[in-house]
Input
Amino acid sequence: MSEVNIYEGAVDKGLEGVVACTTAVSFIVGNTLIYRGYTIEDLAAKSTFEEVTFLLWNDRLPSKSELENFKNDLNKNMTLDPAYVQVLKTLPTNVHPMAWLRTAVSLLSHWDGDANDNSHDANLRKAIRLTAKMGSIVTAFEAIRNKREVLNAKPGQSMAWNFMYMLKGTEPDAEFVKLFDTCLILHADHELNCSAFATRVTTSSLSDLHSAVVSAIGALKGPLHGGANEQVMVMLAKIGTIEKAQQFVKDALSAKEKVMGIGHRVYKDGDPRAAILRKFSEQLTKKIGKPELYTMSALIDDTMQKEKGLMPNVDFYSATVYHGMGIPTDIFTPIFAVSRIAGWIAHAMEQYEKNRIYRPRGQWIGKANLTWKPAEQR
Ligand code: COA
Output
């Protein structure tokens, strides 16, 4: 071989600006985010996570009776099989909860009779089971590592209520439940983000829904995606006091380090979810007697805008919101998964419907024309 064929398509590192598929699930226009035609502000103010999930999967809002049935179906499916919980209890818990969640969701497929059935009806059944069980799995992790009983969801309560109940073992504060439900809505989908794309890539090989969700969890885990919310809390703890916040940002920028929860590939004029979460952060940090966490966050936000023109994304203020609800820091990213599974499934369904396998090219920058020699001659 004397020449290497070089693929000469333009390289879009990080696929910036590449339109990889058509979608009707959610979309960003300027600083507006829409799910199936409704703005995020409208849904956050008026809807519930269950209703938004129905919307994302069905391309329309449910009727009253459809919503009731959907909520009941989710509620019934939140219970984990005792034999599955027994296996979960054998897994080491001295790992990141996202790693544990990734394993637990993969394991869940062993208890799902539809695991290898990719028909639309089977996918709908699996979608309900996976979405309903995600919160139960995350809260089971928290119970198992703290040597507490793994609780079952209570009938007649929302997914947000049950998540908080199963996480802490006590009936949750109504204000926290309302805010938490809104957080679930805000995180439910976000166009072709990294984990939704991972879902679509796995789905595009006509693999099964559990595999697609496991791929998505792996993608979400990273600090440049869902892992950023946890890192924001770590950063605030490291800064320690309000007086040090501005200098921390300046030092990070001169060291070319990323300030977590700031910046976005698509939003350049601000993330609408961050604007909503900022108000919750102020409210909750005041409620728990730690207003300095909000003040520090606002200072970081303002300094980043002044120094670098970058604005907060969804992860920035959600960190102090979850902290204000008494949620352990390493559970922040698993909560993202509890919500984002609604969007992952909507993307998987859309991909199955009009599939073509994802198979891009790489531009060759490697060596050429080498001749193999036996090991003793190298
Ligand atoms: N802190 C400091 N600088 C940042 C930054 C941040 N959080 N986000 C972006 N920048 C800077 C980059 O250093 C780069 O600067 P330069 O042009 O001077 O080299 C410029 O802004 C472009 O950033 P880049 O990393 O190329 O943008 P991207 O579109 O590839 O990445 C993110 C987008 C979200 C991954 C990126 O902003 C980031 O890493 N943010 C922190 C992690 C985070 O919050 N992730 C959650 C996303 S929802």
